[in-house]
Amino acid sequence: MTGRAVVRIVVVLLVLLLVAAVAGYFLVSARLHSVEAMTDYDGRSAETPGEDWLLVGSDSRAGLTAAQRRKLATGKAVGKRTDTMMLLHIPEDGRPTLVSLPRDSYVPIEGHGSGKLNAAYAFGGPKLLTRTVERVTGIRIDHYMEIGFGGFVGIVDAIGGVNICVKQDINDHKAGINLKKGCQDMDGGTALGYVRTRKTGAIPDFDRTQRQREFFSAVVQKAASPGTLLNPFTSVPLALNAADSVAVDPGTGLFDLLSVGLAMRGGPVTTAVPIGSLPTIGGQAVVKWDTQKALRLFEALAADKQVPKDVITK
């Protein structure tokens, strides 16, 4: 075979790969679910440096069969509620910051007085939830992403599971897990139980949000690793699973999702909103933020500056 023939073959292969990549991009983009989450309103915060994402995990069982619900111990609840809420700030330079917003946070909700943060979603869906988060943090949300139980399991399985170090034995039949202390690979079903369980920690829900941040970081870092992205047997199922199970605002596309993974490759700074007290209001246990520390946390993010160490919680 002559050198010219080899060059022709290489050129043809490159063209075919380019065509396949472009076709794949449009195929996956077309399958992304879109949800209206951001609206303009009087008093909305101005745009700030960097990018701010509102990440929402719902308890939606959509797409799961009865057998899968039993296997994953997800229960029979219909509809969906916000099970997890996190604010991700990607700075123009430096490490991202991932902040858990406790779902029981007692905050003002437009048109509904004050109540738990996750009630905003129940009252008005993604739009009211996003507006509520913007008002209480002073940060303008640039992107919204939501995923349900089934989507979470599919994405974890698509990347071949994630290795997580469990701090203590956890036996929780309600979450469908029986884990021993130590580092171990988790598939999607086990991972779902791990991030849902409330069987650990002196204040279970706070320990749960820490595990959620840990797991989200691990999943995104593995998904954005060269070993995943350059392997079509993992990258293609991952892209298709993500497109089918993730809902994003209309202004968010495939490249935006990829940018999150690339930004988090070095590991984000993780924290929760500083807590001031845990009162009972109207017969419900709620979380009140430490107003001064929370203000300093969100002001640092809005200014695209490093978060003060004394407001970072684990």
Brief summary:
The protein has 314 residues and is α+β, with helices and mostly antiparallel strands.
Report what the structure shows.
The chain has 314 residues and is an alpha+beta fold. It has a single domain (32-311), classed as Aminopeptidase (3-Layer(aba) Sandwich). It is 43% helix and 21% strand. The chain has ten helices and 17 strands. It has helices at residues 3-31, 66-72, 117-137, 149-158, 188-196, 204-223, 226-229, 232-245, 254-263, 291-302; strands at 33-34, 51-58, 82-90, 97-100, 106-108, 114-116, 143-147, 162-166, 170-172, 177-179, 182-186, 246-248, 269-272, 275-277, 280-281, 284-285, 288-289. The strands form six sheets. Strands 1-12-7-2-3-4-13 form a seven-stranded mixed beta sheet, with helices on both faces. Helix 1 packs parallel to helix 8 (232-245) and helix 5 runs antiparallel to helix 6 (204-223). It starts with a helix and ends in a 12-residue tail after the last helix.
Q: How are helices and strands ordered from N to C?
A: HEEHEEEEHEHEEEEHHHHEHEEEEEH
**What is the 3D form?**
globular
CATH superfamily: LCP protein
Amino- and carboxy-terminal Cα gap? 63 Å
The structural class is: alpha+beta
Percent helix: 40-55%
In the CATH scheme, the class would be Alpha Beta
Largest beta-sheet characterization: 7 strands, mixed
Quantity of strands, as a count = 17
CATH architectural designation: 3-Layer(aba) Sandwich
Question: What is the mean pLDDT?
Answer: 81
The residue ranges in which pLDDT falls below 50 over 5 or more consecutive positions are 16-27
Strands of the widest sheet, in order across it, are: 1-12-7-2-3-4-13
Domain Cell envelope-related transcriptional attenuator: 81-224
Family: Belongs to the LytR/CpsA/Psr (LCP) family.
Pfam families: LytR_cpsA_psr
Protein name: LytR family transcriptional regulator
